[in-house]
Amino acid sequence: MTVIGIDKMSFFSPQQYIDMVELANARGEEPDKYLIGIGQTQQAVIPPTQDVVTMAANAADEMLTASDRKAITMILFATESGIDNSKSGAVYLQRLLGINPYARTIELKQACYAGTFALMQARDYVTLHPTEKVLVIASDIARYGLKTSGEVTQGGGAVAMLVSANPAIAQINQDSQYLSRDVMDFWRPIYADTARVDGKYSANIYQDFFKAIWTRYKQKTGLDINNFQALAFHLPFTKMGLKALRDVLPEASETQQTNLMREFEASRVYNKRIGNLYTGSLYLSLYSLLDNSKTLKAGDHVGMFSYGSGAEGEFYSLTLRPHFKAGLINGQLEELLANRKQITIAEYETIFDNQLSGPLDRQLDTQQDTAKFVLSGLKNEQRQYICH
Predict the structure, then answer these.
(1) For 5-28, what is each residue's pLDDT tens digit?
(2) What pLDDT score does 138 carry?
(3) Where in the numbering of this chain does the Hydroxymethylglutaryl-coenzyme A synthase C-terminal domain appear (predicted)?
(4) What is the number of alpha carbons within 13 Å of residue 285 lying toward its C-beta?
(5) Interatomic CA distance for residues 317 and 170, integer angstroms
(6) What is the dotted CATH code of the domain comprising 4-168+329-387?
């Protein structure tokens, strides 16, 4: 049987960030509330010259070869930060990246969960069309507002994944278990540019969903915690995943508990410094795990817990391929993080309030943005994207 799964992964987040200690001091909070209680150390800041389309393009462009662009016959763009209520972000992406014009271009939405659904659809499509490839994008900007309870869990970025036959990174197994319920833990009305969230309630729902789906997964598959070398979680903030992991650790031996905790720490290295990227949070965590683990090897099973408020959750597994690190861009995240610039809280607040919005024509200053793809402004109510 042909193996179908994730062949390549790439990531992008803008060049500016704030330090969580400085944010805590500015908000009159104890730094450990953010560093330990939330589990975050830094947060990406999204300038007006970047949106979900440009971040997606910057992420995907770095990993795609000319032959990839010809072989892609579907682009699945998962986001809850869409720029248009009608036109798919995937259409813009197709043009910017020079992807095969005879490709489907679709945008998907279900809070933070949509990236997982996109990945499953990509797997099923390639199973039927093994000579073709699907580009899956999870791109988002987490916005809760200045001086709100959710401010510490902001951030943004894009994860790009190429799904193909005979993948380099991992096989996507056919073992998904999922759950959906109408829950008002988090939402963003059409008229609002920031999310509404009941933080404590949402965290409880996340844990409840994980425990319910994990129990069902074990019942349906006959597998248990001993079958996994690592568990990766949706990490809007990294303490949330840690709480979920602790719920199931008692099922493992002491040695297994130690191993799973070690791999969890590897899986949140990058999320701690980027912050929340909604649909991409689980997949940045997977990237972090694969890049930072010193012990994972071919054939190991990684459990994946995806959650989207509102609410939908899914648990499934990946099986690592013989050369899984080859599917990552060597040194990509280290270089990105090393080249970022720390800005002050005052500068961050100005940027937060200066996002492109409204129908009026506007020209943005793109000179300070070093990314390849940038948003240069609005003309006749049309976003203007350029390539540096």
Answers:
(1) 999 999 999 999 999 999 999 999
(2) 98
(3) 262-362
(4) 31
(5) 10
(6) 3.40.47.10
Contact 51, 366 (CB under 8 A): no
Residue type, 62: E
Dig out the tokens for 356 from the structure: 């492109």
Domains 4-168+329-387 and 172-326 share a fold: yes
CATH architecture of 172-326: 3-Layer(aba) Sandwich (3.40)
Q: What would the 3-class secondary structure string for 362-382 be?
A: EECCCCCCCCCEEEEEEECCE
| Three-state secondary-structure class, residue 301 | strand
- Quote the tokens at residue 50: 């970047």
Positions annotated as catalytic residues are 80, 112, 234
Nearest to residue 185, comparing CAs of 90, 72, 77, 313? 313
Token pair for 325? 């690190």
Q: CB atoms < 10 A from the CB of 60, how many?
A: 30
Nearest to 304 by CA among 355, 267, 270: 267
Q: How confident is the model at residue 180 (pLDDT cuts 50, 70, 90)?
A: very high
Residue 36 pLDDT grade (very low, low, confident, very high; cuts 50, 70, 90): very high
pLDDT in tens, 223-244: 999 999 999 999 999 999 999 9
Q: Say how many CA atoms lie within 13 Å of 193 toward its Cβ.
A: 11
Cβ-defined contacts of 24-32 (< 8 Å, 24+): 24/152, 26/345, 27/147, 27/151
| C-beta separation of 126 from 174 below 8 A | no
Helix (H) or strand (E) holding 114: helix 114-128
For residue 102, what is the DSSP state?
S
Place of tokens 């992406």: 93
Q: Under the phi-then-psi rule, with left for phi > 0, alpha for psi from -120 to 50, and beta for the rest, what region is 20?
A: alpha
